[in-house]
Amino acid sequence: MNNDTVRILILEDDSRDALLIKDELERAGLQFQSKRVDTRAGFLASLDGKPPDLILSDHGLPAFDGFSALELAKEKAPDTPFIFVTGSLGEETAVKALKTGATDYILKHKLSDLGASVHRALREAAERLGRKQAERALRDSEERFRLLLEGVKDFAICMLDPEGRVLTWNTAAQAIEGYGPDQIVGRHFSYIFSAEDRKAGVPKQCLAVAKKNGRYEDEVWLVRKDGSKYWADIVITTLRDPLGNLTGFSKVIRDITERKRAQQEIRQLNAELEDRVFQRTIELEAANKELEAFSYSVSHDLRAPLRHIDGFAEMLARTAGAELNPENRELLDVISRSAKQMGHLIDDLLTFSQMSRSELKLVPIAMKSFVDHAIEGLGPETCDRKIVWKIGRLPAIHADPVTLRQVLINLLCNALKYSSKRPEARIEVGAKSGRRETTFFVRDNGVGFDPRYSSKLFGVFQRLHSASEFQGTGIGLAIVRRIIARHGGKTWAEGALDQGATFYFSLPRLRAPQPASNPAG
């Protein structure tokens, strides 16, 4: 059926009158579908299920009168227009019909009025239906809004009228502020402020700012029903109709007392931390000064007696060597060698201590030429040996050239020393680039080490081979680790007894490589 087709129920016992009614409806241009009934049972059956769009009823039927039909229609189909179409209807009866709910009445000898009456009744019914649907939608929306507000547990939400009086009150508002709806609805919202703020006009200022800017927001002290104060984040938003007229305000409050307390604790902890850092800095500065004084003492006070020991031992060997027996000359030689070794140890200790104080100046470095230059500097230690060097592709990096040169010298010397007993030493320098870091390695075919003790390799004075077997101070690898750590990198080693060793160090990739400086310049 077309949506514009009107379904009409005709309550009429005379089929001829029913034909005249339908003819008049057609002449009025109405598109309709009709059904005629003439008994109470038939009328009730037609009202069950989907009700008709319009009811046209005779007033006097043999066994069923129009007023009874009207009462049933009001019960079964209250939104359907009901028009009496009758042969005669006195004034008193007509008034009664309209008072009891009839939409209109038309006399059968004036059926020409039926079309206009039906059009008017259908139009008014559509308008009533539209209003009901709008009212139902509004009620549903208000109910959803009410449920939404009631479901919010952390925010006190209420609506205010244009003067600031409370209109609605949700459960969270009662929990946060302590007032029930019956105690607060209709009351001015200034109750949440302290007496001092109310006297100072703070509530009025809040509404004034909201009116001017559309919104007011601040973190303020508010007062609960029991008089206790709490920190709150308050937001007042202006509500206006489509024409821009003020209709009221929405007020949202959140208790932020715990957050404020936590912020205060954090500020206090930060202040205490700053105090501890300040005190620690003072202590470190004092320790550095003591270390500098110690370094000065080592550099000057200890070198003098060592120089004397070595010098006098040499003088004694030169002037009285002929008078000394072989055993005494050997003892004198031990004294001289020990003094020189002590001097080397002091030099390495000073270098190690300076590694934590010297400023790093990171610059682009072309590692291939940097390594070649370091190997050239080891000429005196390699001139009498058969050494095979293998230098892989080495990417450019950013590092401090002074300290990085110390790293390479120490690692290369370490490889030369522990491969010195091989007929042919093979030393390899290589690298691998990662997304965040570049790893370099120095590998040798020397005596290696027991991997169980690899953690000791980079410690001060830690040696895995005796001094009589391989000379050294035991500080070189510790210096390597300290320098690389200051660059933000890592150091580690792999090896096995009599199978050589590989020493690694990684450096972070700070930025894209640029044209490298000449390290030999």
Kindly summarize this structure in a few lines.
By secondary structure, the protein is an alpha/beta fold. The protein is built from 15 helices and 16 strands.
Detailed description of the structure:
The structure is a single chain. The protein has 521 residues and is of the alpha/beta class. It folds into 4 domains: 6-132, Rossmann fold (3-Layer(aba) Sandwich); 152-255, Beta-Lactamase (2-Layer Sandwich); 268-354, Helix Hairpins (Orthogonal Bundle); 363-508, 2-Layer Sandwich (Heat Shock Protein 90), CATH 3.30.565.10. It is built from 15 helices and 16 strands. The chain has a 5-stranded parallel sheet with strand order 2-1-3-4-5, sandwiched between helices. The protein has a 5-stranded mixed sheet with strand order 11-13-14-16-15. It is elongated. The relative contact order is 0.05.
Structure summary, number of beta strands: 16
Note the total helix count.
15
How far is it from the N-terminal to the C-terminal residue, by CA? 98 Å
Strand content: 15-25%
| Uncertain stretches of 5 or more adjacent residues | 512-521
Estimate the helix proportion, in percent.
40-55%
What's the CATH topology name of the largest domain? Heat Shock Protein 90
Main sheet record: 5 strands, parallel
Structural class: alpha/beta
CA-based gyration radius:
52 Å
Shape: elongated
* CATH homologous group name of the largest domain: Histidine kinase-like ATPase, C-terminal domain
CATH class of the largest domain: Alpha Beta
- Strand order, largest beta sheet: 2-1-3-4-5
